Amino acid sequence: MHSTYVKMAMDRQRAELRNRRHRRLRTAKAFQNKVKDCCRKITAFFFTQIGVCGLIVGYTIVGAFMFIALEAEARHPLTQEVIIRRRSCVDYLWNITHHLNVLNYDQWRQDVNRTVFEYQTHMVRHIRRGYDGTDENPLLMRWTIPAALMYCITIYTTIGYGNLTPRTAGGKLATVFYAMVGIPLMLLYMANVGEILATSFKFTYQKMCKCPKRRRRGPLANELEVAIQQPVKEKRKKGAIEPNVSVVPVETNEAEIGPTVYDPQTVSVTSCLVVMSSFVIGGAILFSIWEDWGYVDGSYFCFTSLLTIGFGDFVPGQTIAHSQDAVDSKLIICAVYLLLGMALLAMCFNLMQESVFMKIKRLGRRLGLLRDRVAS
Fold first, then answer.
1. Which of 39, 95, 207, 259 has a Cα at 20 to 30 A from 282?
2. Among 310, 286, 284, 311, residue whose Cα is nearest residue 298
3. pLDDT digits (tens, 9 = 90+) for 341-360
């Protein structure tokens, strides 16, 4: 009896251990499934329009603070050389003034002109090599938050103005990896946001213009018309049909011929070009007022920026007379203008592609190169 009781107790204990182990496994598996579902939902959200916009904004902000941390304290390698050159020029001018007789003005002027010309030549050479003079002026900070945001946008949009570049090795490597991730992300942003803008613009365009649906007969109706007219044409050529005989249209059942097909309405290419031109002209007026540019220069800047050409000869916020706060606000608005303009450009290209494709399709049907599929 005692051994049987002990054996039953041990069996119950082993059963409880197995049940606990199974419960732990089920709990762990349920937790893993919840984590997987959460990851799938987060990934799916990031591929939606709102998720992509949030992702591109977050990626830009993180990149801006990363480049500020890497480049804020970096000095240009030519700064010390420029300081030495300027001090040497000042000392040489003092020596000329001190050793020459003040009454000998012509000799003094000749020596001073030669010294100043040499200094200007060296400064032009340094400026071409990237020196901008901001290291010596604490009020002129290169890597402010708006400037860093603008730099990040010019990386993944491939505009690359070139007015702000990294100086440290870490900043250059970070730029390479930032572009490798940012460029595909920008393409995803343009595709998703361009698609939703295209859908919204097409709906608004159809409501405002009240475009009717383009009617097109079914494929069986076209085949029936060809089958009836072909023998008549051949007989007319042979003279078998008398002149007073007319061809009577045949009444057919719509169900036998096939339903009437409506081509989807598309936005015209002209409307897309008007939208793009209006956006460029609006930006040109805005930047012309801010930067004291001409309207041609403003249009040139907007056009080259939106097409990611980005020569860098015109960049907002480069005017010396403007304060740092004014420059920062202009850079932020310019960044928003570029992101919105890229999405608008993708929208217009999407609509123009659809419009051209539908026109080619209609032309192919008229020429007999394309035939409609008959629904089985």
1. 207
2. 284
3. 999 999 999 899 888 888 88
